[in-house]
Each structure stands twice: as C-alpha cells, then as structure tokens.
C-alpha cells in the first residue's frame, strides 16, 4: 500500500455505560464528514481499548449498542471513493479480555496486574489471548472487509516487564532459567512483541501492516523491521518533550532512517484523545507543514463522540489544512541535505515514551532550529550508515556512546570530521559563559575541561562568585559578576585530520531551560569557530528550514514559518494567522541555478551571487513556501 500524504485517524474508544452509546448515530452524517475532510487514507476502528468491536465479530465482542456494521459500511464507502482504509486494532490494552481472563493479564514482578487502576487492562501477547482472540479477529477483518491494511495500537509489553505465568513458563522453556527483572527480561519482552507482530503479519496476509510507536527518538528498532511503514504519534501538547519541536524532531529522525513514515498529530489541544477541542486551521496547517517539509506523511486524529457521530466543523477545518499541504505535494520528496547530525542514541526500551526524552534533545533541536540550521536527528544505525556525509556531528549531553558508534566517530574525526560533544553528569548550579563580549548566565554548572598539548581553548567560562543556593539566585540573567579567573568553556582537540570539540556546559539543556536568545549567538560562534558555517541564513526569525536534494538538477528549500500567539493552550503557544512578509535568504552554494521558483505559487524569484552565497528576497506569502532551484546538470561554477 502506497502511503498517501494525508490521513485521518478516527478514534473510537467507546465504553458500554448505563446510557446506551450510539443513541443518535447517523450513518449518512458520519459518511458526509469523511467526504468533507477528504483525507486520502482513513483509519477505522475494528476494536478499541475496551475490547469492543465495531463490526459483527464472531471471534470477539461486538459493541453492545452498535447500530450497524460501522467498520464494514464505512470501509466499503471509502474504498468506493478511492480512499485507503486501515483497520485499527488495540493489542495490549483490552479491558474486556483483562476482566474476563485475569490469566491473560500482564503482571509485574510481584504478580500485580498492570493498568488495573486505569480505564483499560493490559493483556500479554504470550498468553492464549493471541490465539484465542487477536488472530481470529484479524482473520475476520481480512476476510470480510475491503481494507488495505491493519493498524496495531499499543504493541506494548510493560517497560518494567511482564511476569505473568505464560511469560515465566516461556522464558524457562527457552533458557532453562527463571525470569527476573533486568536486561535479559527486556530482551525477552522485545522478542515476545516481535513474535506477536510476526503472527499478526501472517494473519494480515497481503494487507499492509503498521503499528503505532513503531519508531521514535531514542527507541531501539524492535518491531520497525516487521511493519510496512513507520508510525509515530507526536503531539505539541507533549510540552516537556519539545512541543512543536517534537514533531520536527520525530520527522527528522524518521527521515534520517530512510523508510516511509507517518506522524500522527491530533485535532485536540490537550494531550488526551478524548478531549474534544479543535485547533484552528492555522495551527493544523503549521503542524502538517512541519511534518511534510521533513519528508513525513501527515495523519490527524479525531474522536467520535459517545453517540458515534463526528463534528462537521472539525472536518471542514481538517479539509482546509489537508488541502494546504496537498497543494505542496508536487514539491515534496527527495533527500534532505546532510549537514549536521545530532546523535540521539537508543536511550529507552520499546516502546519508548516521550516522557523519557532527555531535555538535551529538544534543547538541541531548539538551538539548531533557532539558527535555521540544516540538521538531522540520527539513530545509531542512521549515523553509522551516513556518517561520512555530515560536516559535523553533535552529541548532546547525557547521550551514551555505544562502542560501535564511538569507534566510528573516532575514525570520522581522524578523517577530517568535526565532532562536538557536550558533557554528561553536569552538576546543577550556575556559571557564566564568556564569549564575543557577552557574559551569559547559564542555568547549569559545568564539568572542568582538561587541557592537553595541542588543544585550543575556543571560549571561556567563569564560575559564579556566589555558589547557587536559594535564595541567593542571581536576580537577572544579565547580571555580570566581577571577574574571577576564567576556565575553558570549550576546547578544540585536533585528532588526525579532524577536530574533537568538548564543551564544559550542555548548551542544549541550558537553552531548553531558558530559551535565552544569546545562547543562539554563542552557539553559532562556537560552530563557526570550528569551521561549521550555516547552510542558509535568513534575515527574519521563526523559520524551520529543510534543504532537500531532488536528483542532481534540482534542490528545494522548505521554509515553514512559526507565528505564535501569546496565549497558550495546554501549555504551548497557539499558532496565529500568518501575515505575509519578505525576508532575505542567503544560501551557501557552489552552484548557480538557472531558475529559482517560489512554490506552490510558481513565481520566478530573482537572485544574485555574493561570494559563496546565493541571495534571494523570499516572499513568505504563506506559512509554508518552497524555493525551488533548478540547475543545469553540468552547472558547476
Ligand atoms: Zn506475560
């Protein structure tokens, strides 16, 4: 199944309460909304977290109040209209199965069920649940309905591990040992999920298979190689993990990996799917644009109400936002230029929760996006595969380097690469960054750097005069203490043909904590000091940029503009309507295009060459414009 640009995820977790659900369900109105939003793919519910199915299942439980074959009717209508249809199936959250079959539940090491206090129970894929319920239901769906694929949600063994009798018995049979908490148990849980997904893959036959959270920053591969495309759920309301930055980071991370991927956001402001608020057109356009500009396919989540009905206003707004990105579809695709790699490493278990993201990652994304830098977020595999193509590699503070990555980076530096490492284990506290005539109060302590022969101090630090101890907090970030002796803030250590740069402070964590714009300037100076010049400069703030090569003869620069209101929703800024403006763009390029066109408007844009840069006046008429540069194939200057 080809993954289309726009998709709608229709969430239908509908419990069976004393008041009947679907009381005023109107199938004609429901189908009208699907036509109204006009997504090219739609995910319809086959079974929800409560264990209720939305089709007349024989193997499972049909929702008590279901008025019709909702899955079958909608799938047939959508298919007739040329849409792609996925059937949603909740795997490990299944209230009904957990209630009726306590022996199927995931248990912790003390034999307590997971999620018992929540609205749905958690069941184990090593129990008979798979053979008695999941696989027979999936076979029904495959056999009965004209769907293109299966969407598996909650492919999740609890991160602390499952110690149910089925897991214990299986582990004993496989290893001859008892199952105990630790790395062995985590490997076992991961392999259990892989085995379950392979069985599902087999049951799905020729249909496409995808799974939510099949890939994401910091997560080991686990099931990513079993599915047909990657799906990452990412919402700006996950504020502590980056807000809007998180969508960009996840998209960059997937793009660096190279497989087709879809990022799911939601129409709701809050992080909860059941919250029925509606983002503005502007906000949805911004989020969709960020995803599309970084090579992703866009999916938006909606939620049916307890009646099963959909909201017409929501689907009208979704249509406008889907159309906005579709207008840019002819100019999407290609390969992002590799300039700076941010190494994320595999920090978590599968599935990795965004709550676990270390602040250094969104902080680094914020720094680089704030500088309009061209960068990617890389897993170990993506980094090792493409290392030679990057001008610099950044390792944010707190990122562990596995042996294979460490030795590859040593070789990369030896061959002329630039590696910038932030320190780990920095104590809390304060210090002052001194550089370029500026003294910036930092909101972390620092790790002293050892100076060796041949090292070059590239900027300075001063410890604070008064050690941080509330209430002695420096009252203003611009406060400059009288000078004690400075210490190295960063050193450049020549290694072979390249440079290893070590900083005494984590810029990323500081930027995440303060958003101090002076840190942008300081970080830019640090990069330029070691020869990493920006791929593009823009005279106006607020752009996310992606330079994409489409073969030898064309490149496209995607500009997505961020304009935020002061008021916030769920802790993150609301996007305001875009006001057109013009700004100056300088692109570092050895080549000279024969034509520059603003897309999707199709307007010719004049340009000039100044030294190593191509200069344009960019009319940012809409929040997402694409500058298309066309070259003669032999167009080297
Ligand atoms: Zn288990």
Q: Main traits of this protein?
A:
637 residues, alpha/beta, eight-stranded parallel β-sheet, globular, TIM Barrel, Rossmann fold, 31 strands, Immunoglobulin-like
CATH class value of the largest domain? Alpha Beta
Structural Rg: 26 Å
Q: Could you tell me how far the N terminus lies from the C terminus, measured between alpha carbons in angstroms?
A: 42 Å
Under the CATH scheme, the architecture of the largest domain is Alpha-Beta Barrel
Task: Output the CATH homologous superfamily of the largest domain.
Answer: Glycosidases
- Tally the structural domains: 3
Which structural category do the helix and sheet elements fall into? alpha/beta
Q: Which oligomerization state do the chains in this entry correspond to?
A: single chain
Shape: globular
DSSP, total strands: 31
How large is the share of residues in beta strands? 25-35%
Number of helical elements: 14
CATH fold annotation of the largest domain: TIM Barrel
Taking pLDDT < 50 over at least 5 consecutive residues as the criterion, the unreliable ranges are 467-472
Strand order of the largest sheet: 13-12-14-15-20-19-18-16-17
Q: Give the names of the bound compounds.
A: zinc ion
Q: Summarize model confidence as the mean pLDDT.
A: 92
What percent of the residues sit in helical stretches (DSSP H or I)? 25-40%
> Biggest β-sheet: count, sense, barrel?
9 strands, mixed
Organism: Victivallis lenta
Protein name: Beta-galactosidase trimerisation domain-containing protein
């Amino acid at each position: 199944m080809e993954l289309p640009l726009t998709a709608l995820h229709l969430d239908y977790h509908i419990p069976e309460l004393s008041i009947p659900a679907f009381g005023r369900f109107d199938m004609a109105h429901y189908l009208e909304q699907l036509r109204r939003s006009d997504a090219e793919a739609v995910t319809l519910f086959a079974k929800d977290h409560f264990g209720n199915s939305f089709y007349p299942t024989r193997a499972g439980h049909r929702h008590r109040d279901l008025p019709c074959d909702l899955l079958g009717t909608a799938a047939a209508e959508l298919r007739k209209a040329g849409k792609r249809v996925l059937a949603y199936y909740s795997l490990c959250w299944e209230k009904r199965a957990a209630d009726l079959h306590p022996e199927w539940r995931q248990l912790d090491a003390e034999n307590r069920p997971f999620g018992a206090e929540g609205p749905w129970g958690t069941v184990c894929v090593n129990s008979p649940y798979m053979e008695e319920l999941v696989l027979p239901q999936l076979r029904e769906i495959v056999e009965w309905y004209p769907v293109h694929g299966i969407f598996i949600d909650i492919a999740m063994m609890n991160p602390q591990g499952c110690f149910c009798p089925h897991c214990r018995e299986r582990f004993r049979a496989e290893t001859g040992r008892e199952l105990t908490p630790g790395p062995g148990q985590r490997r076992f849980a991961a392999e259990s999920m892989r085995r379950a997904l392979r069985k599902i893959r087999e049951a799905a036959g020729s249909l496409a298979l995808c799974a939510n959270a099949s890939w994401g920053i910091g997560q080991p591969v686990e099931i990513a190689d079993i599915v047909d495309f990657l799906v990452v759920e990412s919402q700006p309301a996950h504020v502590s993990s980056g807000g809007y930055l998180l969508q960009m980071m996840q998209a960059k991370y997937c793009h660096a990996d190279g497989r087709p991927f879809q990022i799911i956001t939601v129409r709701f402001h809050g992080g909860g799917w059941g919250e029925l608020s509606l983002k503005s057109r502007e906000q949805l356009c911004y989020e969709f644009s960020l995803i599309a500009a970084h090579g992703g396919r866009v999916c938006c989540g909606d939620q049916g109400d307890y009646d099963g009905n959909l909201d017409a206003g929501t689907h009208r707004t979704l249509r406008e936002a889907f159309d906005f990105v579709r207008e840019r579809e002819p100019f999407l695709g290609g390969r992002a230029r590799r300039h700076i790699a941010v190494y994320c490493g595999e920090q978590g278990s599968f599935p990795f929760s965004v709550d676990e993201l270390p602040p250094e990652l969104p902080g680094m994304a914020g720094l680089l996006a704030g500088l309009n830098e061209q960068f990617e977020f890389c897993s170990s595999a993506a980094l090792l595969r493409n290392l030679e193509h990057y001008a610099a590699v950044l390792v944010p503070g707190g990122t562990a380097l596995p042996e294979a990555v460490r030795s590859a980076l040593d070789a990369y530096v030896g061959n002329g690469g630039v590696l910038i490492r932030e320190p780990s284990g920095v104590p809390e506290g304060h210090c002052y960054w001194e550089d370029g005539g500026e003294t910036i109060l930092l909101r972390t302590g620092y790790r002293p750097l050892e100076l060796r022969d041949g090292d070059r101090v590239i900027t300075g630090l001063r410890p604070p005069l008064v050690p941080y101890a509330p209430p002695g907090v420096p009252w203003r970030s611009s406060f400059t203490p009288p000078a004690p002796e400075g210490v190295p803030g960063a050193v450049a250590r020549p290694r072979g043909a390249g440079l290893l740069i070590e900083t005494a402070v984590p810029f990323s964590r500081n930027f995440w904590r303060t958003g101090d714009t002076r840190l942008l300037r300081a970080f830019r100076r640090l990069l330029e000091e070691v020869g990493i010049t920006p791929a593009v400069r823009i005279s106006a703030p607020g752009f996310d940029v992606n330079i994409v090569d489409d073969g030898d003869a064309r490149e496209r620069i995607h500009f997505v503009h961020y304009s935020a209101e002061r008021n916030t929703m769920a802790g993150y800024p609301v996007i305001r309507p875009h006001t057109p403006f013009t700004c100056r763009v300088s692109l570092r390029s050895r080549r000279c295009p024969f034509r520059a066109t603003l897309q999707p408007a199709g307007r010719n844009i004049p340009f000039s060459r100044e030294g190593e840069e191509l200069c344009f006046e960019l009319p940012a008429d809409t929040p997402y414009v694409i500058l298309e540069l066309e070259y003669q194939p032999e167009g080297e200057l």
